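Input record (one chain):
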Amino acid sequence: MWNTKNKLWYLLYVLLAKNLPESAIMPFARNIRGYFAGKIAAAVGSNVNIEKGAYFTPGLTLGDRSGIGIKCEVHGKVTIGNDVMMAPEVIIYTKGHAYDNLTLPMIEQGDTPTKPVTIGDDVWIGRRALILPGVSIGNGAIVGAGAIVTKNVPPMTIVGGNPAKVIKDRK
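The corresponding structure, as predicted from the sequence alone:
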């Protein structure tokens, strides 16, 4: 996923753009971070908002008018639809640590296979939510602050808690 070109662009992002002030304080900072995201990520739509301190990898696909919040981490192959709001410190993982072989210490077992994450259109993800590998979040869903999302979230539902459970239907 990482190649020499996007490693160089990521280095420049870290040195020049990642820690520019928040967009509310310096509105053009979002344009600068968005420019670098376009050089690093698989695809970036128009009018995106990558906030201060955001970490993402080349596997990211980010839709139009969507954002990655302050100090968020987006790891691996993640597809984010259009009009997605992401609060600060959200973390999205696409793989974990292997632990199945009881004859080896877990530290020697490496990673689990990558399971992409998909986030639909018009989704709101609350502060410090954690989205685990292989999860799909449907269009119009809301993920409450601090939720740990371990399973797919149906469209137009509100989920919260640990593990995240449906709290309410938006329909």
